[in-house]
Amino acid sequence: MKKRILLLAGGQSGEHEVSLMSARSVLGALPRDQFDVTPVVISKQGRWLPPTETQRALESGEAATGGDLVLHRVASAEGYDAVFPLLHGPMGEDGTVQGLLTLAGIPFVGSGVLGSSVSMDKVMTKQVLASAGIAQVEWRLAVRREWQQTPDAVRARAAELGFPLFVKPANLGSSVGISKVGTPDELDGALNLAFGLDRRVILEAMTSHKPREVEVGILGNDAPIASPVGELRFDAEFYDYETKYTEGRAIMHIPALLPPEVAARVQAAALTAFRALDCAGLARVDFFYVEETGELLLNEVNTMPGFTTTSMYPKLFEAAGLSYSELVTRLVGLALEER
Ligand code: ATP
Ligand code: MG
Ligand code: MG
Ligand code: MG
């Protein structure tokens, strides 16, 4: 019997378009002799689109409006063996959709409510990982109300970290809303941008030297494995949205040119983080490696990483001998696994 899979894509976050790109790749790769796949695109307003509108959105790469309230569709989701929530950012990668599917009793690919929500929030992630003994940059939290009522307190907190620093919405991805702040006079603009997208904002110190950016994939549930380590090289101030998604702007090196001992440290720290955050299925764990000092700092954990055929996560496992379609098949298998 073929497994019936519901593939969710799009969604309300700033990563709507990225999700649709990933979904097109996954749709093309799930072997049709094993799976019956129904895609459903969620509009930017959070409504679930019927088949023809879904098809149109997959082709155009965007769905601004249209569709039904989510609850109408979950009722019909009963007919599925598993859901692949290929959604990035808030209202998709953050435990909300995972909660809905858990309530509905439908297995799904990736982390559950706890792992998704804690990993989505960069502050929560840092707190949990600090208690697991994982090295990270120095950081501070600010919430929107503080920024509105006592902006000087927020500015002072930033100054404690020194400049340049990074300002980020705590719950987002694809570098949306992130600024590298070189001087104090750039701080307010960066905070206004980030608070426009999230109630919680994280301020992060930079390492003294420009770090190398290395990433590793994790695959599995309670016995996860790590992929080879990859590195991103690009010519930009930081790995921003444009650099991420403009063809040819960033180059992936797989495996990363690292001493084997460093690569082993990356894999070990990523596995520790995956377990500490109660992740499941998959995650891409991003690090900063400071060559001059040998320091390895965990940046973040992405529980639903970019998933086009040319994205880092599938490429990392391809280097480990798992093709893209074997990988998605394995992920569905992990969703159905008893835990
Ligand atoms: P993703 O698309 O991987 O989910 P994201 O939106 O969650 O990304 P981050 O990975 O936290 O964002 O940051 C984006 C980029 O900004 C990093 O890849 C790096 O280039 C730069 N960056 C972020 N924080 C720091 C930092 N503390 N020090 C140096 N560079 C940083
Ligand atoms: Mg991220
Ligand atoms: Mg992400
Ligand atoms: Mg990242």
How are the elements arranged and paired?
Layout: E1 3-10, H1 16-29, E2 35-42, H2 51-60, H3 70-76, E3 82-85, H4 96-104, H5 113-120, H6 122-131, E4 139-143, H7 144-149, H8 151-161, E5 165-169, E6 179-181, H9 187-195, E7 200-205, E8 212-220, E9 225-234, H10 241-245, E10 250-253, H11 260-276, E11 281-290, E12 295-302, H12 312-319, H13 324-336
Parallel strand pairs: 1-2, 1-3
Antiparallel strand pairs: 4-7, 5-6, 5-7, 8-9, 8-11, 9-10, 11-12
One magnesium ion binds next to loops.
Cofactor: Mg(2+); Mn(2+)
Subcellular location: Cytoplasm
Main location: cytoplasm
Protein described:
- By secondary structure, this protein is of the alpha+beta class.
- It folds into 3 domains: 3-108, Rossmann fold, CATH 3.40.50; 119-135 and 209-336, 2-Layer Sandwich (D-amino Acid Aminotransferase, Chain A, domain 1), CATH 3.30.470.20; 139-205, ATP-grasp fold, A domain (Dna Ligase, domain 1), CATH 3.30.1490.20.
- The protein has 13 helices and 12 strands.
- The protein has helices spanning 16-29, 51-60, 70-76, 96-104, 113-120, 122-131, 144-149, 151-161, 187-195, 241-245, 260-276, 312-319, 324-336, and strands at residues 3-10, 35-42, 82-85, 139-143, 165-169, 179-181, 200-205, 212-220, 225-234, 250-253, 281-290, 295-302.
- Strands 10-9-8-11-12 form a 5-stranded antiparallel sheet. Strands 4-7-5-6 form a 4-stranded antiparallel sheet. A 3-stranded parallel sheet has the order 2-1-3, with helices on both faces.
- Strand 1, helix 1 (16-29) and strand 2 form a beta-alpha-beta unit.
- The chain binds adenosine-5'-triphosphate and magnesium ion (MG) (3 copies).
- Residues 137, 166, 168, 172-175, 178, 204, 206, 211, 213, 238-239, 286, 288, 299-300, 302 line the site of adenosine-5'-triphosphate (ATP).
- Its cofactor is Mg(2+); Mn(2+).
- Its main location: cytoplasm.
- Residues 126-333 form the ATP-grasp domain.
